[in-house]
Amino acid sequence: MVDENVGGTDRLLRIGFGAIALFLGVGTATLLRRPVAGGILVVLGGILLGTALARRCPINRARGVDTSGGD
Q: Residue 54: is its pLDDT beyond 80?
């Protein structure tokens, strides 16, 4: 099993901000017709959601940060 390093409040914040970024990205790309800015937000939201759902973050690992608390 791969070590998890995302948990608790960190995970909830990633889910919340990831969902908001996805929503704003799609809105920015379609309604405001700014596909580059919208695309960046969608990618950022996808990364946040992906790391929250996988409970692993390569940036946390590189920095030696573990917010899982042994979950």
A: yes
Task: Give the model's confidence band at 29: pLDDT under 50 very low, under 70 low, under 90 confident, else very high.
Answer: very high
pLDDT at residue 70 tops 60: yes
Six token digits for residue 40: 């960046």
What mean pLDDT do residues 1-18 have?
92
CB 49 within 8 A of CB 36: no
Burial of 19 (0-12, 13-18, 19+ CB in 10 A): middle
Alpha carbon 30 to its chain centroid, in Å, reads 21
Q: Token pair for residue 59?
A: 């940036």
**Residue 6 near residue 71 (C-beta atoms within 8 A):** no
CA–CA separation, 53 and 45 (whole Å)? 12
